[in-house]
Specification:
591 residues, 5-stranded parallel β-sheet, alpha/beta, 18 helices, 12 strands
């Protein structure tokens, strides 16, 4: 009677209902895991050029560039990574680039890498971060959900669901079309398992989590799947490795956060030039400080810290009378960095290694001389990216394009120029006589050859008939010799007007070299070869020239500013990607 009474009681019915709900929940979780295992691979999280991303003009390239006929390339070459495409000889490059093999992910290029990569096996078991499970790769990590990770980037989860995906890793390496929804699926799983951002209780936990995220990212980047189809936004031959750059960019868009210091007074802080040859300094500062996607006010979410000061304003701005030489500016900056270090814990935690600044003025690197940690540890993004001066550090610092802007309406009107076959001028340059390269260029070529039109500034009688810009629009090649320093705004000007850049500046780390394969769309001439310049240019076949001409038009998007707001893959995002790349290269750096 007692048992029968219990069975018929309200309590028994409630217990039975709870049991049914629990069983239904377990079944739903099991179905979700099985669906995930059959459809998605963890390798879609991260992909980049390599775990160590530091490629300059002398870096090894990958074996993408096939011999392409001019008639084929404008219609879009199939981006065939992992194929037997023959190498682009790059015979125009004095560095003679050696190309790597894309068909084997273990063949990683580290020629310019000072740090060493995190090792990993592409055939390992990975837990997808859903249960904090183990991985056989060095640098893998286990983190429970209570640690909390920003931006729904969950590495651990209370559900304790194991998702071993060794087979799907192998399958996805042959089929990248399943990757398109990876971030939305990942975020949906994270949202369902945790509510909001749970901050770690201790700074040490927060620091470790940031490093663990980046270490895991580097492992996954190393084994990014190939892009087998033609990409609608990016043209494969321009890049060392399109698939890894594309994945890196996606990760940056979704997870990279920057803390911007509000300290410092205008005009030396929070204000920079918006016109002229140093405009990149001011445009990046303005767009970075106004950005809502990448900027965070929560320092626990920040991978990098931006110090928004302008070397240009200190040197030549209207309020710069007290800073007329480099030593005066270095003293001022030293005091400012020491102030930030005493006011906040961020600098001292890493000795400045997760801080960066952007400078286009020639003095940019030299103004760090008064503060050792600013010079050696902080990430410098510089127009004057000279590999020989002891200030620029390969694998850590980045190159900044020097954009000569005339007005705030950007992109400028009148981009492009004559079709390749209609350009009557072989090569053109007009500019001042300074630095070590230009006197040599003028000695051999100043107004001495109708095919190589070299002028010490454009004479007024010639300018009346044909402007500087029109000369570029009608020239096949635009000569870009260094000035006082290795950088020159003519590289970007040439790209704007479909003129193949001819770069003459030894030891110059070209902008975005960690991503872009400059030899695919420009000609790099050693300074010692200036006397032979015409023969070098005439030695370029028509087929090769047409290929480079077409690629210049494709690469232009990476060098354009946009007035209203930055656009995907434009110069603002490429600069930020260089900073993101540097942060990855320095992982881990916790003491």
């Amino acid at each position: 009677m007692e048992f029968g009474g219990f069975v018929g009681s309200k309590l028994w019915k409630e217990q039975l209902q709870r049991l049914v709900v629990v069983l239904a929940g377990v079944g739903a979780i099991y179905a979700l895991v099985q669906s995930w295992n059959s459809r998605y691979s963890p390798s879609i999280w991260f992909s980049l050029h390599s775990a160590e991303i530091g490629y300059g003009p002398i870096a090894p390239q990958s074996s993408y560039d096939a011999h392409i006929s001019p008639s084929m390339e404008p219609q879009g070459l199939v981006q065939e990574y992992g194929s037997d495409a023959s190498k682009d000889t790059n015979d125009l490059s004095p560095q003679g680039l050696v190309e790597g093999n894309r068909r084997n992910d273990s063949m990683l290029d580290h020629a310019l890498s000072p740090h060493g990569v995190v090792q990993g096996d592409v055939k390992r078991n990975i837990s997808l971060g859903l249960d904090g499970g183990s991985s056989s790769a060095k640098g893998s990590f286990n983190v429970s959900n209570e640690d909390g990770l920003s931006n729904n980037f969950s590495v651990g989860n209370q559900n304790n669901v194991n998702a071993s995906v060794e087979n799907s890793v192998r399958e996805e390496s042959h089929n990248s079309t399943k990757d398109t929804n990876s971030f939305s699926v990942l975020n949906a799983v994270n949202v369902s398992s945790q509510k909001g951002y749970n901050r770690p209780q201790h700074d040490q936990d927060w620091e470790k989590i940031l490093e663990q995220q980046l270490t895991f990212a580097k492992n996954e980047i190393e084994n990014s799947p190939a892009v087998l189809a033609k990409d609608p936004d990016l043209y494969g031959p321009l890049y060392h490795n399109l698939s890894r750059f594309k994945r890196s960019y996606e990760i940056m868009e979704n997870f990279f956060k920057v803390y911007v210091y509000s300290d410092g007074e205008k005009p030396f802080f929070h204000k920079g030039p918006m016109e002229g040859i140093y405009a990149s300094e001011g445009w990046f500062m303005k767009q970075m400080e106004e950005n809502k996607q990448f900027v965070t006010k929560d320092f626990r979410k920040a991978f990098m810290y931006y110090i928004p000061y302008s070397v240009y304003e200190m040197r030549v701005g209207v309020h710069a009378s007290q800073y007329q030489n480099v030593p005066q500016i270095t003293i001022y900056l030293k005091d400012q960095i020491n102030m930030l270090a005493s006011k906040y814990p961020f600098w001292n935690r890493t000795h400045g290694r997760d801080h960066f600044f952007v400078a286009c003025h020639d003095w940019g690197p030299y103004t760090t001389a008064g503060h050792n940690e600013l010079k050696l540890n902080a990430v410098k993004v510089l127009c004057n990216a000279d590999l020989s001066d002891g200030f620029f550090h390969l694998g850590k610092d980045g190159g900044l394009p020097e954009t000569n802007l005339h007005g705030l309406e950007q992109p400028p009107a009148g981009l492009g120029g004559l079709y390749a076959i209609k350009r009557p001028i072989l090569a053109f340059f007009a500019g001042g006589n300074h630095g070590r390269v230009r006197p040599v260029l003028f000695k051999y070529w100043k107004e001495k050859d109708p095919d190589i039109r070299v002028y010490q500034n454009l004479p007024s009688e010639i300018a009346k008939k044909k402007s500087y810009v029109q000369h570029m629009k009608e020239s096949k090649f635009c000569i870009c010799p260094m000035g006082y320093e290795v950088n020159s705004p003519r590289m970007v000007e040439a790209i704007y007007y479909d003129c193949v850049p001819v770069i003459i500046a030894d030891n110059f780390f070209l902008p975005f070299s960690e991503v872009l394969k400059w030899q695919s769309f420009s000609v790099i001439v050693a300074e010692k070869d200036i006397p032979n310049l015409k023969n070098i240019l005439l030695g370029i076949s028509e087929k090769r020239y047409l290929t480079m001409y077409f690629r210049v038009g494709k690469v232009r998007k990476h060098f354009l500013w946009h007035k209203d707001s930055p656009k995907r893959y434009d110069i603002f995002h490429m600069i930020l990607h260089s900073v993101w790349t540097s942060r990855l290269n320095q992982t881990p750096f916790l003491a």
